[in-house]
Each structure stands twice: as C-alpha cells, then as structure tokens.
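Our collaborator T.R. sent over the components below with a one-line note: 'Predict the complex.' Nothing else. No constraints on interfaces, no templates requested, no preferences about which chain binds where. So this is a plain run: every listed entity goes in together, and whatever single assembly comes back becomes the starting point for the next discussion.
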Amino acid sequence: MGPDVTARRETLDRGEREVKDQVLRMASLVEQQIRDAISALVARDAEQATLVVAGDAKVNDAQREASALITTMIATQQPVARDLRFLLSLDRVTYELERMGDHAGDVAKQVRKMAAEPALRPYADVATMGRIAADLVRGITGALVDVDDALAREVAAGDDEIDHLYQQVFLEVNDLMRADPANVERGTRILFAAFDFERIGDRVTNIAEDVVYLATGLHEDLNP
Amino acid sequence: MATIAPAARTAPRFEPALMRRKLTGTLFYGACIAAVGLLLLALVALLVDVFLRAAPWLDVDFLTSVPSSRPARAGILPAMIGTLEIGLIVGLLTFPIGVAAAIYLVEYASDSRLNRMLQTNISNLAGVPSIIYGILGLAVFVRVLALGPTILSAALTLSLLILPVVIIASIEALKAVPEAQREGAYALGATRWQMVRQSVLPAAAPGIMTGIILAMARAIGEAAPLILIGAFTFVTFLPNPFEGQYTVLPIQIYGWAIRPQADFQGISAAAIVVILGLMLLLNGLALVVRARLGRHIQW
Amino acid sequence: MVAEPADPPTIRRMTMIADAPDGLADEREPVVELDVVSCWYGSFRAVKEVSLQVRPREVTALIGPSGCGKSTLLRTMNRMNDLIPTYRTEGTVRFEGQNLYGPGVDPVAVRRRIGMVFQKPNPFPKSIYDNVAFGPRINGFKGNLDELVETSLRRAALWNDVKDKMKQSGMSLSGGQQQRLCIARTIAVDPEVILMDEPCSALDPRATLQIEELMAELKQEYTIVIVTHNMQQAARASDTTIFMTMGDDRAGYVVERGPTVKIFTNPEERLTEDYVSGRFG
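Returned assembly:
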C-alpha cells in the first residue's frame, strides 16, 4: 500500500464512530432519566414524574436511530470479525439501554401514583439504589467508550450493592405490609420502584458482559 | 434397516505411454535443432567464403575510388553514392505516402468490402516480382514522364516496389495498438486526428519505423528492376540524381562478378561485404529505433 | 428526536434518506438526466426506455446481471457509443439541462466534461507525466502544466507513489496504481462527471478498496457514476443505486432506483431483493 492511501476503510471506521456516538448519546439520556426519576421520587413531584414518563419517547427514538445506523453499516459495509462483533454488541447494548429507559419510566409512573398520598416510609434507601444505578450507567458508559474490560468488571461488581439494598427494602416493606393491610398498595408501589432500579443494575451487568466480550473475545457471566 | 453397499466406483482407465510421448517430443526437438543447424551451417559457409575472397581487396582505397578496368585500382564510390542517393529518396517518398495510406485504411476508412479488397490487393502487390516493377518503371517514369534513365526514375520505381510492404507493415503496427488506447484518448476529449497523432501513432511508431527501415534495406538490395531502367555497370563519376548515368552496389557487384578474371571475383566479393555491412547497419538501426521508440510500451 | 449535531455525519444522513417517505429527500438539480432512453445496435434494442437522474456530487451505482446493458447505458452518457457505427440512441439525454445528442453538440466537447475510466486500466505508453498531461495538452490548456499534473496526481492519491519517477512509463505501475493514474489523467481535464465502467474488476481486493476510498473523497468535487457487477462494492461505495436487469426481449430496463441503504436493507421490488441477496436465477 502506498503512503498516499493511509485511510483503510475510513468509511467503515467513521460509521463505527457514528454508531458509538449515538449509543453514548442514548446512554447519557438514560442516565438523566434515572436521575430525574429519583429526584421526582424524593420530592414526591408528580409533575416531574410525568415529564420523565414523556421523556422515555426520546430514549426509544434514540434506540431506533442507533439500530437503523447499525443496520445500514452491516448492509452496506459487509463488516466481519472485529467490526461485526463491535456492531452486534452495540446493538445489544442499545436494547439494554432502551429497557433501562423503560424501567426509569416505570419508576416515574409509580411516583405519580404515590405522590398523592403520604409516604409510607422514607424513600432514602430506594433513592440510594437509584443513585447507584445511575452511577453504574455512567460508569459502564465510560467502560464502553474505552472498551475497558477491567472497568466493566468493576462497574458490574457495583451491582451487588443495589441487590443488597433491594433485599433490605424488600424485607422491610414486607414487614410493613404484613403489619397493616392499608399499607399494601403503597408498599407494593415502593417495591415496584425498587425492583426497577434493581433491574437497571442487572442490565448494566449485561452491558458489562458485552464490553468484556468486545475487549477479550470471551463470554463471561458477570451476574452469577 | 438394511444398508445397501454402493456400487464399486470404476475409475477411468488411462494408458499413459509416457516413454513414447517423451520420445516423440525429443525427436521433434532434434529435428528442429537439425533444421536450424543446417541453416546456420550454410550461412556461415557462405559468409566465410565471401570474407576469405574479399579480405585482400578491402581497404580504404577500395571505398573511395572509382571503378577501373584494373581491379587493383577499382573502387565502389560511385556505386555507394548511387545506392545512398536512391535509398534517401526512397525513404523520403515511401515514409509519408505509406504511413498516410495505412492510417487512412486503419483509422478513417470504414470496415467495408471495398476497404478489405483494397488491403488484400496491397498485400498481393507486395508479392509481385520486382522485375515487373522494373517494366512499370521503364514505361511510366523513364518513357512517359520522360525522366530518363536517372537515379530519380530508379528511386521512384523502387518506391513503388516497397510501398506495399511499408503499408502492410504500418497497418499491422497500427492494428497492434489496442482499442483501449483509442478509447482512452477519446474519453479525454480528443478529436479523431488528435487520437491518431498523439496516442496511436506514437504507440505504433516502433513497428512502423522498423517496417520502413527493413523495406529500405530490401530496396537498396534490388538489382533486376534497375537493370531494366538503365543502370550502368561501369560508371566512373559520381552520379547526379536528375540526369546522367548511375549505378548501385548490387549492379556493380554483378558487373564485376561476370568478369572471368579471379581478381574481379575478389573485388566483387569485397563489394558484397560492403553491402552486407550496409544491411547490418540498417537492421541494427531498426533494432535501436524499435527499442528507443518503444521503451514505454508493455503490451 | 435526539438533538442533531450541526453537520449530520454521512452514515446517519444516508440512513435518514433511506427512511424518508419517498426515499429521495434531496431537492438538488440532477446533473445527468435520462428521459425514456433506448439504445439500439442496428435493429437490436439493448436498453429499453430508461428514465433516471444522476444527482450532483454523489456516487451513483448501476448494478445488474451481465449483459443487461449497464455499460451501454453508461457510455451513452458521454457519447462513447458514437464510435460504434451501428449505434443509435432514442430519447433524451440531458447534461446540466442541455440535450447531449442535440444538433450542434460536439461529442468531443462532451467528453472533456464527462470523463471515463475503463475496466482494464489503459495508461498510455508514455511517461507518467505525459499520461496526466495528455488531456490538458490536447484540450489547449494554458497555464502551469507541472502544477496541474501534481494536483491531479494528489487528488488521485498517487502523488507520493510516483513523484520521484515521473519520467517512468505509466505502464510500469501496478494495476491499482495504473487505475489511479487513469483517474488522475481524467480529472486533469476538470470534468464535472466521472463515469467508471467496472473500474475495479481487474484489480485485487486491496487495490479495489483503495479505489473505493478514493471515490469517497472524489465525490466531494465530482459526480461519479459507476457500473459494477460487484454488489458489495455498490453497497460500500455508492449513495444511490440503480438496479437494471434484462427482460425477455433481451433489452435492459431499470427495475428500481433508490438510496443505496434502502436498496440493500429494504428494497421496494421483489426482483431487486432477490438480486441483492444473491437469489437471482
């Protein structure tokens, strides 16, 4: 190859960068949705919750766009090997992100319903779960940008804390619901919200597995 | 469930007979070598004979003197000059006419029956015996056009003789240029003439030049037509192209060779060596021209 | 919608165009326009009633099975078919609004503005310099020829390879380099459109990719129309794809035309889909 033509498959590389940018854009949207849901929860703000629910549409649009870009890349550039693994992994990542967005929206829906009534119990721990989840999303985004499998494993380990908190909330709320049937509805809603944050944490782990695969070519189960 | 064994596969049968095939090849190879060997042998024998006879007579005086009835003092200067003058005029005439005709036939004329007939006829003309051209030259140039038995008539006659050869060689050279070259020139916005002049001609130049040089070599080796048009065998002065007597090397050789004296045989052989040298020079020139003009060509 | 960056990147734009309702979201004037064009060789119709447009500064690919008239159609656009005595065009071929086959239009002038690169690289048996300078010289270029040659070679991504051997024969280069030399000499005469007739079919895969990357750069300045029997190449390198096939009367016709992304992800016609997925009989 002569020194003139330094750009090998620049179109492909440029396309991959575009796809990656789109995915990162989407991740940042999802992170923001989670944080907004937390803030609505803590402030018991039905209006903000409604905004979060409406905001999920943007996440879905971003996912459709990312998917379309990936389809275009595969159809027109015939990627193989590393390029193909990259694009297919990112497609899975957008799926996980979209589901995360759904979970954030679900939390907001619960907040809307809970806002009218007084809080059954402090939401502090649930909010903490949410914050950890949002931080995990930010962390995994960073790992994705650099395809850093060490960071990905570290982030995935952070999911344990969410799980732990979830166990605590579960036990506590169950106690409260057993104590008084009038608490069941509010209790259930708190459990749903907590569960959504827990699922977000799990999905972060899935993304971490994709990052590890991209980096090492090996499938590792980070969520035993 | 019972399994049925498949039928045994019958392999195709070969009878290689390798020894026989190789033997045939070797025999053919041997026959080819023998043919070449015979040819070379004959050629070498001829050359050795001529050189041995010519050796005592070849010197500078020989090249610069005029013929004389005494072999010791005879030279080939007038014959050389005659040959060179004729060669020059022939070259100047056949080059433009021959190449232009070839260009017309290949690049401009449509591929019609008429065109193909023309090319066939030109090929046939190339095979006509040279003495016929002599008769033609006598009638047309010497008599009708009243140019008389001069170098000019001889040159015109010989031009007619080799013109078909030049045209054919040029046509082949032009046809050898791939069509893709012409398309490439057209695609850049060339007119037909520009395409011919800038792309096709330069690419065909080696073939054309080689053809002309070799045709000229043939022309200056001709004796029969010139005898008919009135070349002399004994000319002692330097000829004038437009009037007066002249002679050329082949005729001078003839003139000396028919004399019985051994000395004349000697200088005849010497003259043969000179003309051979001239041929060698021209052929060498053709090679050099071909290499130089065709240095970029790789098809 | 997600906030758009100021200048939509290429793959995104291609995808967006593919999703647009009629697939042709572009309002630019076409550079070359064919209006019910048929191509005849004597009494045989090779191409039947084709209408299409080529948009400026993009790569349009013509794909289809062998013998369906793609090359014939391509050569109609720069009147190269005029060189064949029995050839005749019906219909209108417009270049920048003007009828290419109108009275008083000189094909020689057309060919300077619509250049062509051929399937087998055909550099002249001259030096590399003279190859590139050929076009400008015969078109009466007045100016700095050295500069023009260098610029053309740079644009064709060949300058670094040959700058120290400009006097060497153009035919001494490798296949891919020869083809880039042919591209350089084509752009030396400053055309608007570059037609390419299967430019990579005689090249190895790496040289092919180099030419494709070159096309991606060239399309910023020139409109490119490429005939290719390599579908993957059309998918990789073109913005618009036109699919042609041969009818029962052995005349070629256009089946579908659209943005490349659409043709290769979700074409309108079943025939197109069969062809691009390799199921064509």
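Summary for T.R.: Strands of chain C lie at 32-41, 44-54, 59-63, 87-95, 98-99, 114-117, 193-197, 223-227, 240-246, 252-259.
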